[in-house]
Design a protein that fits this description.
The chain is mostly beta strands. The protein contains 1 helix and 11 strands. It is about 10% helix and about 60% strand.
């Protein structure tokens, strides 16, 4: 039977492509919301957006590194990033969105995840955020130490990930606490030992841009 066509879109074919990945993402999201899994988010060849009303992180280690992956054309690419690592962090009003092209439709679809927006914060332990760009209306650091070697410091300071290319001679900074307000950032990857998402909501929307993505 020929798939139904509406406005040039073969919706059965679209469903075949999208449903398995959406179902897997939803299952992982539910497990994360229940605190059952370690978390790892990465999008090959694409940045994703993260927005937060406030991020409070403890025992921060920030350093430069390189993320590698595949571009949308399947080519190897390297991306310079600033890795922000925290032993423990709470996030208020978190939003994460990624845009995925659909070549045979010549369109795109945005997956957006929100959590921590109903009075209970998102909580993460041993979290690493590989950031390409970050904006914040206010950033406050307590007991900051600038210009240290990546991975040095006390036992509570997260060390660079074992699979990460962090230069032993690279610039880094550490702080006991960091408070960032009204955060907008683009990132290549986020990993955490645990990531508990309160009031998790995920949705797919055709298109991209302001009003569809997080910002």
């Amino acid at each position: 039977m020929e798939s139904q066509v509406r406005g040039g879109t073969r919706w059965k074919r679209f469903a075949v492509v999208m449903v398995p990945s959406v179902a897997a993402t939803a299952a992982i999201g539910v497990a994360l919301a229940q605190g059952a899994l370690a978390a790892s988010f990465s999008v090959s060849g694409q940045e994703f957006k993260v927005k937060a009303g406030k991020l409070v992180g403890y025992d921060m280690n920030q350093y430069g590194s390189i993320d590698s992956g595949k571009s949308l054309k399947g080519e190897d690419e390297n991306h310079p990033v600033s890795v922000s690592a925290f032993r423990h962090a709470t996030i208020t009003d978190m939003c994460q969105s990624v845009v995925t092209p659909i070549p045979f439709l010549n369109k795109s679809v945005t997956l957006k995840l929100t959590a921590g927006d109903k009075g209970t914060d998102v909580v993460a332990d041993q979290i690493y955020i590989d950031v390409a760009q970050l904006d914040s209306t206010q950033a406050e650091f307590s007991n900051i130490n600038i210009g240290v070697a990546a991975g040095s410091g006390g036992d509570n300071i997260p060390k660079p990930k074992s699979d990460e290319r962090a230069s032993a001679f690279g610039f880094a900074q550490q702080a006991d606490k960091a408070v960032l307000s009204n955060v907008e950032q683009t990132a290549w990857a986020t990993t955490a030992g645990t990531f508990k998402l309160a009031n998790l909501h995920m949705g797919l929307t055709m298109g991209s841009g302001k009003g569809i993505e997080c910002y």
